Amino acid sequence: MTQPQPLPASKSQTFRLICLATDVPEGMKAGHIPARSALGRLPDFARLWGHVAPLYRPAAVVCASDVQSDTWAQATRIPLVQQEALRDRSYGLWHGLALRDVPPHELACFVQEPEYAPNGAESAQAFQARIGTWVEGAALHGRIVLVARPAVVRALAVHALGGDCSLANRLDAEPKSLSVLTRHAGLWRVRQYGVALPDLERGCA
């Protein structure tokens, strides 16, 4: 899988992003900040693709670098490109720590203050800017499936809504969910957000 440099995109460019949010890394379920090496996963991707592909007929799959996708190429049979810019937010030296081991005041600041970035972590503002810069600069055409961890899909929705990182605190980031974002004539639209992936089997797409 290659990592081509994004090309400048015209503001009039039309495309649809079918965003699949992965499950959260196992450590998060146990109250830990994800390890730096942790990967998001979509169990039984081949079966899921069997529902997504006929509904949306995507031309390409873009996958974040912190998502396990090494077995997906055979299922999709279309180009699959990894993007480092779509990785989840960096926690710096906090990666792998139990939440109880992080000073409560520092954790609250990290969540609530846009520019707070302790111990080499990425601030909420910087994370949102990174995701917005990627989606505005990438050469996207037609229908693209984008697979990333939940916080990244939420940041894409925030960008589409014209919000800043403070809006992210008002949107749930649902694991194993589908969101659809479109851009036409320079205008973004959130067509769907946070639809549970099992609902695809009941025709909810």
What does this structure look like?
It contains seven helices and six strands; from the N terminus they run βααβαβααβααββ. With 205 residues, the protein is an alpha/beta fold. The protein has one domain: Phosphoglycerate mutase-like (Rossmann fold, 3-Layer(aba) Sandwich). The chain has a six-stranded mixed sheet, with helices on one face. A hairpin with a 2-residue loop joins strand 5 and strand 6 (187-196). Helix 5 (124-137) packs across helix 6. The protein is globular, with a radius of gyration of 17 Å. The two termini are 28 Å apart.
In the CATH hierarchy, what is the architecture at level 2?
3-Layer(aba) Sandwich
Kindly report the oligomeric state of this protein.
single chain
- How many domains make up the 3D coordinates? 1
Which structural class do the helices and strands define?
Answer: alpha/beta
Top CATH class: Alpha Beta
Rounded mean pLDDT is 88
Report the β-strand fraction as a percent range: 15-25%
What sequence of helices (H) and strands (E) makes up the elements? EHHEHEHHEHHEE
Low-confidence stretches: 1-10
What best-fitting shape do the alpha-carbon axes yield? globular
- Helicity range of the residues? 25-40%
N- and C-termini, Cα separation:
28 Å
* CATH homologous superfamily annotation: Phosphoglycerate mutase-like
Rg calc? 17 Å
Report strand order across the widest sheet: 3-2-4-1-5-6
What is the β-strand count?
A: 6
Q: CATH fold name, please? A: Rossmann fold
Number of helices in the DSSP assignment: 7
Largest sheet: 6 strands, mixed
